[in-house]
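Anyone able to model this chain together with adenosine monophosphate?
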Amino acid sequence: MEEMKMTFEELAVDKEIIKALHLLGFKTPTQVQQAVIPLLFNRQDVVVKAQTGSGKTAAFAIPLCQLVNWAENKPQALILEPTRELAMQVQEEVQNIGKFKRIKAPALYGQYSFLQQQKDLKQKSHIVIGTPGRVLDHLTQKTLPTEAMHYLIIDEADEMLKMGFMEQVAEIAATLPQERVTLLFSATMPKSIRQLSKELLHLSTEIVIEDETITPNRIEHFYYDCTDWDKISLLVGILMVRNPDSCIIFANTRDLVEQIYEELTAEEFTCQRLHGGMEQWERTRVMDDFKQGEFRYLVATDVAARGIDVENIELVVNFELPYKRESYVHRIGRTGRAGLKGTAISLAEISETKQLELLEKMMKLPIIRLEEPSAEAVDSARKNFLHKMHQLPAPKTAKTAAIDAEIMRLHIADGKKSKIRPVDIVGTICAIDGVEATDIGTITIWDWSSYVEILNHKGPQVLEALQTKPIKGRLRKVSQATPKRHKH
Ligand code: AMP
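re: yes, here you go
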């Protein structure tokens, strides 16, 4: 169904945000954005049933970036996410969208220094993204002020419920001002989520986005009968013959993920794995490398891969069918994005036929059986396969890079200890010919050093000028900083 195409301008989105959207390649608002943006501008509570892939993150990130009062130092919006990966990903999207509004958006999640997060929070912070556990820790330690928090976004509510976070979410909500706007996003709407939204939200509007989600016709579904097969050799054969540009393979347990990973690596697949048993830094690195296209195959459990935003996954394989039907939808949601065609393949035994039928019913789409590739087919495919494994695939996300290209980050070798404040930096920079306040991005001031982003390609000019212009009465050592990655 072709819906009426609106523009971001028609939704009354600011030009600084539209500029960022343009660089991110967001041309027109998706359905969920068309529905949610005006409601949030109207400060209405909303319950949204929408999937990852519908553009739901931007649906709340765009209005939040526009609604927050830049001058306020205390955080004004809180976004809750079930996993660290999602928190990081949403942080990146908020920072990208809010770049030209100079929005600061720290993320709070576990397995990362509490103290560093505490420091981040002492800087001006507009929008805070976090996982419930760590957010509660900060609330208990009084390191996260809530007085100005007038927006609460509960994202992936069904997932939070599954992970047992609901009490924490309710506890967090109770510490925020009563006068607030609350949005709840969930891929599914079980009774308990409805109940929760009744408790936490004021009279809310409910929005259901079905089209862009559960029945993605662009995805073809297949299965192989693996009853009489060694599953790993069947998988290897299928992958060699299909030879996809990029692929995620799902399994239900960490051990099996490790095993598949080892076996594929032994067969010269460029491959990595992702599961909850890995250290946070390792998981982050794997996801970044996958997004950058450093390898083509990712083996993962559901939890670790939930909601992960990687574009253009050509093939999703269910090495095992997921325990829950919804997980199937989440898994295949990684493919067939942005109008591209995708393929989902499941390896299923005869005993799982019933499960396949239920999946077909749920998606209203057939899952077609394919014949196992013959030994000859695999053999003749091997050469092409190896050739591809030795080529580096194209990077997957250039979005952040597109935003960063306009920006130069400068390092000033003095900070709080020299009593430098943002206004001192702004004052000096605005006194440079041809440079205005709107050319300045976020400013971060630490004890001994400060960072300032210069927008609109004016970085080199400002860098040069600051070599001879004093900041707060003294010439400071100013140099180009290494670009900030959106991770730690
Ligand atoms: P989400 O549902 O928030 O996980 O978003 C799915 C993907 O769509 C992300 O890669 C977004 O950056 C991208 N996206 C969001 N809104 C738009 C839009 N209006 N046009 C194009 N891409 C978008």
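The first strand starts at residue 46 and ends at 49.
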